[in-house]
Amino acid sequence: MAIRVRVFASLKERLGIEQTEMTPEGIGCVADVWRRLTGDDLPAQVLAAVNMNHAGPDAPVRDGDEVAFFPPVTGG
Amino acid sequence: MTVRLVEGEFDPWALLQAEQRRLPPGSFGATACFVGTMRDFNQGDEVESLFLEHYPGMTERELERLTAEARQCWPLVAVLVVHRVGHIRPGEPIALVGVWSAHRREAFKACRWLMEALKQRAPFWKKEVTPHGTRWVEKNTPG
């Protein structure tokens, strides 16, 4: 299997990534996924979700999970 | 039908009326609602239109979670949350929160709480089209 990664809104445009997959080896938490994706530490202003639940940088990520990254939300 | 995402223009007043007609007559004494409508200005600039991106699947789940949380906090008869996605023009409604309860206190409180919680937690992002180009709205105004 794999970890599915999705990126939304301004972050999607900035990174040029909408959706990708990565192997689960070496991935333990949300911050690890970001590091694999960008090579950097997860910035405080970037929000995340695991399997469509809001999640912090230390939230665990397992094989088969969907991890999403996005900027602060602006609905309503 | 508590939570709905809609791509086209919607009539908040017709939806409120339809929802209220479904409720047993006499079961509620208070109806509170909030309707958010698109302005043609923001941060000092003219705004011609708006694109509302969302996270399909998570958006619905987050709105369901918020309405469930509101129902745990206050004794509510019914809750209706409707939100636009996609392209929107000035003057069109973006969001509707309707709350029915026995008394006004919980209707007012739950409606306000739901609207603010939606703005803080539901995964929507606004992109504005202005005469100078497009820009993402970086954060919501304080409620």
Automatic annotation (TrEMBL), chain A:
Pfam families: ThiS. InterPro entries: Beta-grasp_dom_sf, Mopterin_synth/thiamin_S_b, ThiS/MoaD-like. It comes from Methylomarinovum caldicuralii. This is Sulfur-carrier protein.
UniProtKB/TrEMBL annotation, chain B:
InterPro entries: MoaE_sf (IPR036563), Mopterin_biosynth_MoaE (IPR003448). The keyword Transferase applies. It holds the Pfam family MoaE. It is an enzyme of class 2 (transferase). GO terms for molecular function: molybdopterin synthase activity. Keywords: Molybdenum cofactor biosynthesis, Transferase. Its EC number is 2.8.1.12. One of its GO terms (biological process) is Mo-molybdopterin cofactor biosynthetic process. The keyword Transferase applies. Pathway: Cofactor biosynthesis; molybdopterin biosynthesis. It catalyses: 2 [molybdopterin-synthase sulfur-carrier protein]-C-terminal-Gly-aminoethanethioate + cyclic pyranopterin phosphate + H2O = molybdopterin + 2 [molybdopterin-synthase sulfur-carrier protein]-C-terminal Gly-Gly + 2 H(+). Heterotetramer of 2 MoaD subunits and 2 MoaE subunits. Also stable as homodimer. The enzyme changes between these two forms during catalysis. Belongs to the MoaE family. PANTHER family: MOLYBDOPTERIN SYNTHASE RELATED (PTHR23404). This is Molybdopterin synthase catalytic subunit.
